[in-house]
Amino acid sequence: IQQTQPANVLLFHSTDDGRTFNSWNTSSLFNASTCYMSASSTLQIWARCATGMNSVYVSSADGARHWRVIDTHGLISNTGGGYFDPVSDRLAFVDLGADSPAPKDDLLRLSPSGVSTPVARLGCAIVNGLDFVNAHDALVSCQRTGRTQSAVLLATSDGGRTWEPYKS
Predict the structure, then answer these.
(1) CA torsion sign, 137 to 142 to 145 to 149?
(2) Could you give the CA distance from residue 80 to residue 96 in angstroms, rounded to a whole number?
(3) How far apart are CA 129 and CA 142, in angstroms?
(4) Region of residue 15 (phi > 0: left; psi between -120 and 50: alpha; otherwise: beta)
(5) Residues 6+ apart with CB under 8 A from 84
(6) Whole-angstrom Cα distance, residue 59 to residue 41?
């Protein structure tokens, strides 16, 4: 649980199914009040933090006490249609959206160590939702162009390397 107070941001952490909580100050996380956090385990936390018009992605392996910036090969625009999907304590994906000029890969595989690896070209101008259910299988709802009529639902079963229109 994240709570913003006038002077600082507190995180509340439970290891007993929410019966009790411990809190600590997140002074090691810059601009924590603008961060969207997702815990993959009691220690592994992923965060997307707004830095004005852009986002930076960070990872904590010690329950949000210390943070490591993930190298995404540049800032990712908050208005560029990208999407962030933490999958597990060892894996997250980020789509760069409109920020990634063709033919550069726009889907990155992130590790908590701060390393990102290009996976493939998703080729969506705007990503409305990206959901990896495991390291291999995912769906993405996106617009191929900025026009609503270009909306498509795509699926992958190879970790995002190839995407095909979803067939029910």
Answers:
(1) positive
(2) 8
(3) 7
(4) alpha
(5) 36, 46, 48, 55, 57, 92, 93, 94, 130
(6) 12
The tokens of 160 are what? 């995002």
What's this model's pTM, rounded to 2 decimal places? 0.74
With CA atoms as reference, report the closest residue to 93 among 165, 8, 10, 160: 160
Checking if the pLDDT of 148 tops 90, the result is no
Cis bond before residue 6 (omega within 30° of 0): no
Bridge partners of 166?
Answer: none
Dihedral sign for Cα 113, 103, 152, 127, please. Answer: positive
Rounded CA-CA distance 34/116 in Å is 22
| Digit-coded pLDDT (tens) for 92-115 | 998 876 655 555 778 889 888 888
Written as six digits, the tokens of 157 are 């079963």
Distance CA 83, CA 110 (A): 13
